[in-house]
From TrEMBL:
The chain crosses the membrane at residues 12-32, 44-67, 166-185, 246-263. It comes from Zea mays. This is Steroid 5-alpha reductase C-terminal domain-containing protein. Pfam families: DUF1295. PANTHER family: 3-OXO-5-ALPHA-STEROID 4-DEHYDROGENASE, 3-OXO-5-ALPHA-STEROID 4-DEHYDROGENASE (DUF1295). The keyword ATP-binding does not apply. The keyword Nuclease does not apply. Keywords: Membrane, Transmembrane, Transmembrane helix.
């Protein structure tokens, strides 16, 4: 009886990922032809989003439905050992993929070795019978939630195990603010440059410095917005206990700080805007938007 059940589960395990695999193979077989259809064009242009869509529909939704039919969510345990390999080949086979052949081969071999070890450990633990038992945590939650477990299992087993909290809201708001600030700052800078180019073509004097909009309160509001984005991402990691990941945005900030110095040196070397930019430096915050300083008359004469 156990052997028959294991064979049935083996068939189920083989069939459940086929929708994503077949869809992706048909896309790859077409060579990522963006002219084939709007869907093919979208898939070629958005590999990361496509991977998440396939994962959600095939793993989160389909695995959950299969788990309800079997009254057992064992399937997800097996596939946690296999999905990384599938994702690896997904990205490696994507038409937009560009990789060093030797490095790619080593990464593939190591990922397969990791997956083989973990899969072997899983099967050995289960006595070489697929679906022999369900994760003990799922069993406890099944008993805890009773009749509501059928829908609670979708969130408890297949979606994020980390509850959304206040810090997640702060992180999300920081990221959104960063995107908006950087967008508006870059847009204002583009308009300023375009306007000066038009004035130059007309033979009229150009405006030496941009001091309107966000640029009135920060000399580099676009850089500030970019930093908000990266530090906002770090807040997500910090909330999950991965505090060491501050190194990423810190290095980014240090690099952008150096770029800021280079940009300002370049501005001061341009004769037509050097004096105006010196005054702009004295009045305006470097990165963080803030109220403008009142510069004394003596300081104005120094420029």
């Amino acid at each position: 009886m156990a052997g028959g059940s294991s064979l049935k589960n083996m068939v189920v395990a083989f069939l459940v990922p086929l929708p994503s695999i077949l869809f992706y193979l048909s896309f790859v077989r077409a060579g990522g032809d963006t002219g084939a259809s709007p869907l093919a064009s979208w898939c070629a242009a958005h590999p990361l989003v496509l991977a998440n869509v396939l994962f959600f529909l095939n793993v989160d939704v389909l695995f959950w439905l299969v788990g309800l039919l079997l009254s057992n969510h064992w399937l997800i345990d097996l596939y946690w050992t296999v999905i990384p390999v599938m994702l690896l080949h997904y990205y490696r086979g994507h038409p937009a993929s560009v990789a060093d052949a030797a490095r790619s081969a080593v990464a593939v071999a190591l990922t397969w070795a990791w997956s083989a070890r973990l899969t072997h450990n899983y099967l050995r633990r289960e006595g070489w019978e697929l679906g022999k038992r369900e994760d003990w945590r799922f069993n406890e939650m099944r008993a805890q939630y009773g009749n509501t477990w059928w829908w609670m299992s979708f969130f408890a087993v297949y979606l994020s195990q980390q509850p959304w909290g206040v810090w997640d809201l702060v992180a999300a708001a920081t990221c959104v603010a960063g995107i908006l600030i950087a967008h508006f700052a870059d847009t204002q800078l583009h308009r300023f440059v375009t306007r000066n180019e038009k004035l130059k073509r007309l033979g009229e004097p150009t405006v030496p410095t941009l001091e309107d909009g966000l640029w009135r309160y920060s000399r580099h509001p676009n850089y500030f917005g970019e930093q908000l984005w990266w530090w906002g991402l770090y807040l997500f990691a910090w909330n999950l206990g991965q505090r060491w990941m501050f190194l990423g945005p810190l290095v980014n900030s240090l690099c952008l700080g150096y770029v800021t110095v280079l940009v300002e040196r370049r501005m001061l070397k341009q004769e037509h805007r050097a004096e105006a930019y010196k005054l702009y430096q004295k009045r305006t915050s470097v990165w963080i938007p803030w109220f403008r300083k009142a510069v004394p008359e003596s300081k104005l004469k120094e420029t």
